[in-house]
Amino acid sequence: MKAEVIAVGTEILTGQIVNTNAQFLSEKFAQIGVDVFYHTAVGDNEERLLAALEIARDRSDLIVLCGGLGPTEDDLTKQTLARFLGRDLVFDEAALARLDSFFASRPASSRTPNNERQAQIVVGSTPLPNQTGLAVGGLLEQNGVTYVVLPGPPSELKPMVTEELIPLLVSQNQKQQLYSRVLRFFGIGESQLVTVLGDLINQQTDPTIAPYAKTGEVTLRLSTKASSKVEADAKLDKLEEKILTHGELSQLMYGYGDDNSLAAVVFELLLSQGATLTAAESLTAGLFQATLADFSGASQVFPGGFVTYSLEQKSQMLGIDPEKLAAAGVVSDFTACAMAEQARKLTSSDYGVSLTGVAGPDRLEDQPVGTVFIGLSSHKETKAYRFMIGGRSRQDVRQIACMHAFNLIRQTLLNGGNLL
């Protein structure tokens, strides 16, 4: 089934509101195996909406119209669809009853004739009840094309789609659903990842591979259509196995899912190993610690840490020799190692990490913007790692530096506590 979403409302075209409904609908339809091929936005104009419907009818099996179901004169969606299909509008009794109930406790003068429009549907439609508003939706089929009308406000549209529309579509199209799996990679760019996987991407049919670049990392979304999750998992497992045989991708992949992160992986590893971690931050001003503390139960793995920007505070708070600090400089492997080791010792933690470097916009100690030193200390040893994060904003340098720190800790925890 090829679908098209038509958002109706001049306020979308003028930029007054963002069309979040299209994203929501595409995501929901993908979950049931309905492919959305087109997103269209049209203003509150009958002739332009008729033209959009004519185009959509010739290229789509499912046409979903969002918005324009309210009581005002510019709410034209149902009226225009009725005209386009050569059908009349009739009142849905359940929607009328809801209108009666809504206005029963309000002054009689508050109900005007145009309110009745919200209870109308196109003849032949299956009503889609509105649990959070007054405008009823509808679904009908004509000449092999299914038409759906939905309210514009997301607070009304989302429940109607989830509770009413999706079950109807599933009952009509139960053959296959779309299943996806997201693989997350750190330490490789999108262009490099696509190059490494060029043979698989160029030959893909089903399942498919879609790369997405994010700040500091890349994800791959593997998708397949199948009649069951068991069938889908078998196909996705096979593709994932092929992907991870390419180069060092098995080492660069750190997790699964849209909402996962390096920080979450590290937090779970620390919990499972009963280990504690502290941090001393210069470059990132507490961003690393704030990220770790976002997780419920963070106190089990994070006893506390330090933010030390100046040489004086590095010396006073962490107990580092000021002469050695001055000689080495802020941006150095010595300072990174000393910060990580002293932070670990002062908090009696299993691991200590430090971040120091140049976020920009200017050079520091003759080091270019994007130079980052990360120190990592365990009971066994302490090391410093140098990274160059180029072509990024100040905030990106800080965020990616934190990701490098979390990744170093992840690798250490997976390596039996041995630093790489």
Automatic annotation (TrEMBL):
Domain of life: Bacteria
Domain MoaB/Mog positions: 4-172
Pfam families assigned: CinA, CinA_KH, MoCF_biosynth
Family: Belongs to the CinA family.
Name of the protein in its database record: Putative competence-damage inducible protein
